[in-house]
C-alpha cells in the first residue's frame, strides 16, 4: 500500500482497536475523574497528576511539569525494535498526539476536554500496542497541553521544543457533529486600555478627558467594521471597565477584543483594521491608549493525507460524513492546535458525542451547560474511543508505511511554506508598528 493508494482496513486495525477497547473501563474512569474536578488553564493540577500517573502505569516514560510549565507533561514510548533499527542505520519515526484537560469558568468541561484528554491517551496506547504486536521500530509521544481555553498552552510548548522530532501531531475534539474538514478560524485577542483625566461630571465636565468615550467609540467603530468584513471573519468585544461612578468623568476604561479569520492574510488585515479603530478612538477623545496582545491562535491547515486516512478509518468504524463542502461550511471556533499545525503536519477533526449515528444535533453547542452534561455520557465515551482509533491507525501509517511520512511532510510544506515563520515575523513587525505590547492572556476555542 502506497501513500497514494489507500485502502482500508489497516493491517494493524485489530491489534490497535483491541488495545483501546481493552482499556475502555480505565479510560472511562479517567475521563469522569477529570470531568468531576474541572480546573482552569494552568491550574490543572489534578488532571496533570491523574493523567501522568495513568501513562506511567501503562509503560510510558513520563516527564511531569514539562518544559517548565507546571501542568504540562510529555509521555513517550519507544518500541523494543527501535534500538536494533537504529543500530542498522534505519531512521526511526515518531508520531505525536495532544491531550487537553482545562475547563471553562462556571460551566466546567463544556468543551469536553475530559474527552480530549482520554482521546490522546487512547491513541497513544493504540500505537504502542501496534508497534509491540508487529515488532516495529517507532516512538509515540503524548503531549499534555494546558490552557487551551485561556492562553494557549501549546504555544510556549512549541517554542520550548515539545513537538520537535515528530513526523506529525494530531488531536481530536468533541462536538455535536462528525467533521474531518472543519474550518477552524484563527483568533487574535487584545486588551485595550484608555487613559484620560477625571473630573466632576456636573461641576466641571470640561476639565475631564473621558476614557469611556474612547472605549465606546472603539466599540462602535468595530461594530461598523462588520459591514465590510468577509463573511468568514469574526470580531467581538466587551467593555471590562467603564468607570467608578456616574458622577465622575472616567479617567480609565478598558475592554477586550477578539478577531477571527479563515486565513492568516485575512487575520492580519482584520487585526490592522481593529488597531486603527482603537488608536483613532484614542486620538478623537484626547486619551492615550495601551494595547496588549494577549493571544494569537492560527487557523488549522489540515494535512490532506492525514485527514484522508483518519476519515477512511473512522468511516470503517461506522462514522458517516456529510460532503466535504458542507463540512467546511460548518460553524467553528479557534484553537492553539492551529499553531501546532503550522509547525508540523497535523489534523484536528471533531467527533459527535450526541449520538453514534452521525446525526448532527443542532440543539446543543460547545461551551454550554448542555454540552457539559453530554461530555460525561457513555455515548460520548464510545464516540471518543472511535475517534481515537482513527488517530491511532493514522499514526501507525505514519510510522510504518514506506513513503507515507514523507508524503505527509510534502503536503505540509506545500500548504505552510517555511512552517509559517514568515507570517509570524510579519505579524510581529506590524504589531510593533502599532505600539502593541505582547503578553500571555486570554483565548478560547
From TrEMBL:
Q: Where is the Peptidase M20 dimerisation domain?
A: 189-283
SUPFAM superfamilies membership: Bacterial exopeptidase dimerisation domain (SSF55031), Zn-dependent exopeptidases (SSF53187)
The terms under GO molecular function for this entry are: dipeptidase activity
Q: Which Pfam families match?
A: M20_dimer, Peptidase_M20
- Spell out the family assignment given in the record's similarity comment: Belongs to the peptidase M20A family.
Query: Which PANTHER family does UniProt cross-reference here?
Result: PEPTIDASE M20, XAA-ARG DIPEPTIDASE
What name does the UniProt record give this protein?
A: Peptidase M20 domain-containing protein 2
Q: Species lineage, top-down?
A: Eukaryota, Fungi, Fungi incertae sedis, Mucoromycota, Mortierellomycotina
